[in-house]
Design a protein that fits this description.
The chain is of the alpha+beta class. It has one domain. Strands 8, 9, 10, 11, 12 and 13 form a six-stranded mixed β-sheet that branches. Helix 6 crosses helix 7. It is globular, with a radius of gyration of 20 Å.
């Protein structure tokens, strides 16, 4: 469990509040829209003529704190990684630069030499549009409507002795009121057409939720997650302060961080616990009547759940519904 951390070395930026020595990080932070703020978008038309893929695509960034680095996302796609080690560096996936898949990420300082026609950060962001799936865009919309979201794509480190080495990832992590404080809650997002939530017998998503339950059942896991997200909130506030100075140098006010994040950062003891029962968030904005009639009951009937698995909490986002989490 000690592998799950949310830490970041911000000390290297203390002497450079406007990030003039780190122009790439400055540009990334100028495009950051914190949770609770809708990202700007633009219309996109796929080259392959797939009409169902047309529509608005985000062009601004979300960020998530990791163990020693920050991931920047656009429409659910990781655009860049900023590593905060002894030296601060940043990398971008080469598929957004026009490169192949031989390397996963390219350092920013090598792009001009190796990819002279790659364009700038806005070009790379727009190239993510061809990779943004409908589910990930839905997640981005939910982030824009909920200021209490504190993490995206929460990767669970492999348990000791586990055979499967691919880290399960939970789509959304949020803060939820709990007495006088807050607790960490988790949401797994699914589009209504996703085959994993449609079944004539037992939905496949139950197996996915069971893998999460196994991880959270491990001794000490909930305390580790609670402590990591206490620090996560502190880092978000500190990083937001740095970003605010960058925005101010451009004559713009940065959108505020959510009150829950600021409250936990000011007093980490306000984050009192973790709810290990991952909830389902279903995008039903297209009003799939067959799903509601034939498949939704199978997600909520306790008799269909695996042994010892808690009942699944399901929140449906129906047509014209607000995107706020319950």
């Amino acid at each position: 469990m000690s592998d799950f951390k949310r830490v970041l070395n911000l000390g290297a930026l203390a002497a450079d509040p406007e990030l003039k020595a780190q122009p790439w990080l400055r540009e990334l932070l100028l495009r950051w829209q914190p949770a609770g703020t809708a990202a700007q978008s633009e219309n996109w038309k796929p080259k392959n003529g797939d009409k169902k893929s047309e529509g608005a695509r985000p062009v601004q960034l979300r960020l998530a704190i990791r163990n020693g680095y920050v991931n920047f996302y656009c429409g659910g796609q990781s655009v860049a990684k900023a590593d905060f080690g002894s030296k601060i560096t940043a990398r971008v996936h080469n598929k957004y630069l026009g490169g192949g898949d031989a390397q996963k990420y390219i350092r920013f300082d090598a792009i001009a030499q190796d990819f002279p026609d790659a364009g700038d950060l806005d070009c790379w962001i727009r190239r993510t549009h061809g990779y943004q799936g409908i589910e990930k865009i839905f997640v981005d919309l939910v982030v824009g409507a909920n200021a209490q979201i504190i993490d995206l794509e929460m990767g669970l480190p492999a348990l000791h002795g586990a055979i499967e080495r691919v880290a399960p990832r939970i789509d959304l992590v949020a803060l939820e009121p709990s007495g006088d404080g807050w607790k960490v809650v988790f949401w797994e997002a699914k589009h209504v057409k996703d085959g994993r939530i449609r079944s004539t017998t037992t939905p496949e998503v139950f197996r996915q939720l069971a893998s999460y339950a196994t991880w959270f059942d491990a001794p000490g896991s909930l305390d580790v997650v609670r402590d990591a997200y206490r620090e996560n909130c502190e880092i978000l506030v500190a990083l937001h302060k740095i970003a605010a100075a960058v925005w101010a140098s451009e004559g713009k006010p940065i959108p505020v961080l959510g009150a829950a994040i600021r409250a936990v950062a000011a007093d980490p003891s306000k984050l009192v616990g973790v709810d290990p029962n991952v909830r389902l968030l279903i995008d039903n904005r297209e009003n799939d009547a067959l799903f509601c009639k034939a498949h939704l009951p199978k997600l909520t009937e306790a008799a269909r759940l695996p042994v010892d698995q808690s009942p699944v909490a399901v929140h449906m986002v129906n047509p014209n519904a607000k995107l706020e989490l319950p």
